[in-house]
Amino acid sequence: MLAETIFSIQNNLDFEKAALRVFNHQYLNNHTYQRFCNLLGTTKTAVKCVNDIPYLPIQFFKQEKIVSTTSPIHKIFTSSGTTGSLTSKHYVSDLKIYEKSFQKGFQNFYGDIKDYVVLALLPSYLEREGSSLIYMVEKMIADSQHPESGFYLYDHKKLVKTLEQLNHENKKILLLGVSFALLDLVENYNIQLNDTTIVMETGGMKGKRKEMIRQELHEILKDGFGVSQIHSEYGMTELLSQAYSKGDGVFHCPPWMKILIRNPEDALSVLGPNKTGGVNIIDLANINSCSFIATQDLGKINETGAFEVLGRFDHSDIRGCNLMAL
């Protein structure tokens, strides 16, 4: 089974083979992606290696039903959006693949979720339908099997009391929160945590605060929580995998996910290390939708393939890529 192959990737050769198999599958079964490839002049036989594979602009998830299967759809994950705006929809036919991806992905970087008390501070995500992040965290809370694990929404007082108690007991804690909520917490409470606590931000001010660069955000949170590093999770509605940063905003992917940087002046070419451009993502867990996505994020990779997210294209930059015009 293709999914089993994906989650058993050990090296670059395994990744290359799996990526080509997934491309062939999606070219044949995803009509939107096939049309897009054909308009670029890239047919199935033209793709000999990963560098030949086209990346579907992420905006298509707002306009088309991106599926590579005839199986029934069991879940539709949706992005947040302002009133009247188009939201991305990710049609998921096999939730077991998503669960395996986020479970193995977390374990790959942090070990067994059962070792952690999972405390979630995710207002705005929790208050709407269809969040893939909420689905993941609900499962992590259940899998942790700790009675203190749970969503705390706006109950900061209870959350701080729980943090202090767990900290006193020297238990390992994963505090996972959206950026604006973590800032609200440290502004209103004096919290000093020990090194058994992982504070992980998922990004996003959701219109609640002015946006700030990651370094500034992390300095405030480090001071506010008394920790040496702020961890980060990088994921999105259109993906079934996450990358993680253990500090300094440098992200690492699980073995079935890879980041490439496209040239902002030529969207079909890829840049080398330490050059800023558009973030292209290969997420092989997206077997049944599209695994090859050109995002609206700006970033760069280093020589090891680890990456940083530096911002986003504005609307004129996106149009300038000329991919959506095809």
Explain this structure to me?
The chain is α/β, with parallel strands linked by helices. It has 10 helices and 15 strands. A 7-stranded mixed β-sheet has the order 5-4-6-7-8-9-10, with helices on both faces. Helix 8 packs parallel to helix 9. The longest helix has 18 residues. The chain is globular.
- Share of helical residues: 25-40%
Q: List unreliable stretches of 5+ residues.
A: 316-326
Sequence of secondary-structure elements: HHHEHEEHEHEHEHEHEEEEEEEEH
Mean pLDDT: 92
Coarse shape: globular
The description of the largest β-sheet is: 7 strands, mixed
Strand content: 15-25%
**Rounded Rg:** 20 Å
Strand order of the largest sheet: 5-4-6-7-8-9-10
Distance between the termini: 34 Å
Oligomer: single chain
Helix count from the secondary structure assignment: 10
- DSSP, total strands: 15
Structural class category: alpha/beta
What's the arrangement of secondary structure elements?
Elements: H1 2-6, H2 12-29, H3 31-39, E1 56-57, H4 60-63, E2 75-78, E3 89-92, H5 95-110, E4 117-121, H6 132-144, E5 150-151, H7 156-168, E6 173-177, H8 179-188, E7 197-201, H9 214-225, E8 231-234, E9 243-245, E10 251-252, E11 257-263, E12 266-271, E13 277-283, E14 292-301, E15 307-312, H10 315-320
Helix pairs in contact: 2-3, 8-9
Q: What's this model, at a glance?
A:
With 326 residues, this protein is of the alpha/beta class. Helices cover 33% and strands 22% of the residues. α6 (132-144) links the parallel β4 and β5.
